[in-house]
Design a protein that fits this description.
The protein has 139 residues and is of the alpha+beta class. Helix content is 28%, strand content 27%. The protein has helices at 3-16, 57-67, 94-103, 125-128, and strands at residues 27-35, 40-44, 73-82, 110-116, 119-124.
């Protein structure tokens, strides 16, 4: 991926933190998901007073994409941290990793954890979800 394209994807994820609804945790997360055809789907975390009804930024982006008929993805950028503090490398929760596994090739799908356009780490889904269970296990 070209550096300028990666920078744009990170900037989109950083911008999505501004839409985060996190009145309980005060931990804002933004995500930018790139489909294989180049489309970008964004998401933010959306909390709820009943906690269980909350949704992570990563799943918000995936669900938006899938609801538009897109099922093939290259990478996702995730940015997060306290709303009054420094950004952290915000790794996806287990549920989000499993949603990614449903739609992505674990060996090639990239998960980019970013603090800024110049400070990020890149992992594959296989690295963050080893020995995973996926759709092929049910065939």
């Amino acid at each position: 991926m070209a550096e300028k394209d990666l920078k744009k994807l990170i900037e989109k994820a950083l911008d999505m933190r501004n839409s985060s609804y996190a009145p309980y945790s005060h931990y804002k997360v933004g995500a930018a998901l790139e489909a294989s055809d180049g489309q970008i789907f964004s998401g933010c975390n959306i909390e709820n007073s009943s906690y269980g009804a909350a949704n992570c930024a990563e799943r918000t982006a995936f669900f938006k994409a899938v609801s538009e008929g897109v099922h093939d993805f290259k990478r996702i950028v995730i940015t997060g941290g306290p709303d009054d503090g420094e950004l952290q490398y915000a790794t996806p929760c287990g549920i989000c990793r499993q949603v990614m596994r449903e739609f992505c090739d674990p060996e090639s799908f990239e998960i980019i954890l970013a603090k800024s356009t110049g400070d990020y780490k890149i992992f594959t889904l296989a690295q963050l979800l080893p020995e995973s269970f996926g759709p092929e296990n049910l065939l």
